[in-house]
Amino acid sequence: MAGAGGEAEGLAYDGPLEGGIPFCQSGTPGCDADADYDYASRPQGVKDAVGRVALTGRIGKPMLTLHGTLDSLLPIRTDSDVYTRMIRDAGRGSLHRYYVIEGRRTRIRFRVTSRGRPVRGAKVRFAGKTKRTGRRGRAVMVRRVFRPGLRRAVARKRGKRSAAVRVRVLRRHAGA
């Protein structure tokens, strides 16, 4: 509930620097907690814990990465491009597809193959929409996915094993 001056009850403005200085450089007064963090001096247990969750590029299942050009929170150059190189360097590039999405609506092209040959007439389902592949094994759909996270695309055809791929949907900048 709002109190006088638009503040929430029980909360008050804590001054211009109490919350810290965003994006400060090393040595900036009042900015010693984040910019001057020395990871190398941390105990081995901390380094082991970080190592267990660190990105390595060693993916085990097929993965499709979509990254929109309107995303300013996670710039393409410092996020998806880097992870794509990590996957390639780990020798897992054949399991990964990476698409950069221009604008709001997303055009996604799936290619379904069996033993390297295109599969005609397979049903591809993604984000609530189903399309059939053409003679080249491709299905194209335009989708608008609102929430970030992992989604699953599934391809099925009678007489063949179904296949699934993870699609990573990234958060878009709020002003886009």
What keywords describe this structure?
176 residues, mainly beta, two-stranded antiparallel ribbon, elongated, disordered N terminus
Structural commentary:
With 176 residues, the chain is mainly beta. It is built from 2 helices and 10 strands, in the order H-E-H-E-E-E-E-E-E-E-E-E. It has helices at 44-53, 80-89; strands at residues 63-68, 96-101, 106-111, 113-114, 117-118, 123-126, 129-132, 138-143, 149-156, 163-169. The strands form 3 sheets. A 6-stranded mixed beta sheet has the order 2-1-10-9-6-7, covered by helices on one side. Strand 4 (113-114) and strand 5 (117-118) form a beta hairpin. It is elongated. The relative contact order is 0.15.
Residues in helices, as a percent range: 10-25%
Strand content: 25-35%
Say how many strands there are: 10
Low-confidence stretches: 1-8
What's the mean pLDDT score?
76
**DSSP summary: helix tally:** 2
Molecular shape: elongated
**Rg, please?**
23 Å
Question: Structural class, from secondary structure content?
Answer: mainly beta
Order of helices and strands: HEHEEEEEEEEE
Read across the widest sheet, the strand sequence of neighbours is 2-1-10-9-6-7
Largest sheet: 6 strands, mixed
Rounded to the nearest angstrom, the distance between the terminal CA atoms is: 30 Å
